[in-house]
Amino acid sequence: DADVTQTPRNRITKTGKRIMLECSQTKGHDRMYWYRQDPGLGLRLIYYSFDVKDINKGEISDGYSVSRQAQAKFSLSLESAIPNQTALYFCATSDYWGTDTQYFGPGTRLTVL
Amino acid sequence: KNEVEQSPQNLTAQEGEFITINCSYSVGISALHWLQQHPGGGIVSLFMLSSGKKKHGRLIATINIQEKHSSLHITASHPRDSAVYICAVRSYRGSTLGRLYFGRGTQLTVWP
């Protein structure tokens, strides 16, 4: 089984709808991240969490919110989806003690019509 | 200006060729990562470097901290190496880990 899982893998929705993307990990890492990837652009950080009680905004947090329900779960919500939020979304985890290597989920392809 | 610049953006090679992808950065770093993104979208970490050189199979990564430059080399390239290669740097902020900056990626296509 994959160490970092994301659901759903694909989602098509309409403008104005509320959407939740979920991420679960079995790596036992404290640090979790949400990124979005757009064609021709690098990965951009939306939110990150260093433990259950610590949540921080990334470089493009407007229009998004997150919830860290447990060490293993980190959800990303789009309160009112808009077309320019159409992108590939990745969840990732890392361990602080060590290399801080990022372990990515398989990605969620979100299309907002 | 992006803190991490990769070159080239696109690279096409014939099977067996030696490949080099370059990464330059403008911030002080604690570590540099090379990632591989497969055509299906999945991203895996290839290397984490803070100095010198690392080798894994046909992949070699080097870093020059003074010049703020890293290279990823692929020897004897194969069509299965076709992917997007992403350079990312972890900025240094005193005793704590700073944020991660990503390059835009290099699309490598290797033809048989």
Provide the fold topology:
The complex is a heterodimer of chains A (113) and B (112).
Chain A: E1 4-7, E2 10-13, E3 19-25, E4 31-37, E5 44-51, E6 54-57, E7 64-70, E8 73-78, E9 87-94, E10 103-104, E11 108-112
Parallel strand pairs in A: 2-11
Antiparallel strand pairs in A: 1-3, 3-8, 4-5, 4-9, 5-6, 7-8, 9-10, 9-11
Chain B: E1 4-7, E2 10-14, E3 19-25, E4 29-37, E5 43-49, E6 52-56, E7 59-64, E8 69-74, E9 83-93, E10 96-102, E11 106-111
Parallel strand pairs in B: 2-11
Antiparallel strand pairs in B: 1-3, 3-8, 4-5, 4-9, 6-7, 7-8, 9-10, 9-11
Short descriptors:
heterodimer, A: 113 residues, mainly beta, seven-stranded mixed β-sheet, four-stranded antiparallel β-sheet, B: mainly beta, five-stranded antiparallel β-sheet, 0% helix
Q: Write down the secondary-structure element order of chain B.
A: EEEEEEEEEEE
Cα distance, first to last residue of chain A?
33 Å
Major interchain interface with per-chain residue totals: A-B, 20 and 23 residues
Oligomerization status of the protein chains: heterodimer
Biggest β-sheet of chain A, characterized? Answer: 7 strands, mixed
Content of β-strand of chain A: over 45%
Count of helix runs of chain A: 0
Structural shape of chain A: globular
Question: Helicity level of chain B, as a percent range?
Answer: under 10%
DSSP strand content of chain B:
over 45%
Number of strands of chain A: 11
Classification by helices and strands of chain A? mainly beta
Q: Give the overall average pLDDT of chain A.
A: 92
List the total number of helices of chain B: 0
Q: Mean pLDDT across all residues of chain B, rounded? A: 91
N to C succession of SSEs of chain A: EEEEEEEEEEE
